[in-house]
Amino acid sequence: MTVPGSEGPTRELGTGPEAPTRELGTGPEARTRKLSAVIRGAFADTRPLRVPAYRRLWLAGIVTVIGAQLSVVAVPTQIYELTGSSAYVGLTGLFGLVPLIVFGLWGGAIADVMDRRVLLLLTGSGIAMTSLALWVVAAGGVGNIWIILTLFSVQSAMLAMNQPTRNAVIPRLIPAEQLPAANALNMTVFQTGAIVGPLLAGVLIPVVGLPTLYLLDAIALLATLWATWRLPPVPPQRTGVTAQRHVGFRGVLDGFRYVGMHKVLLVSFLIDVVAMGFGMPRVVFPEMSEKVFGDPPGGGIALGALFAAIPLGMVVAGLFSGWLQRVHRQGVAVTLAICLWGAGVAMFGLTGSLWLAVLFLAIGGAGDMVSSVYRSSMLQRVATDEMRGRMQGVFVVVVAGGPRIADMWHGPAAAGFGPGAAATVGGAAVVVAAIAVVARFPAFWRYRGPVEAS
Question: What is the model's pTM?
Answer without folding.
Answer: 0.72
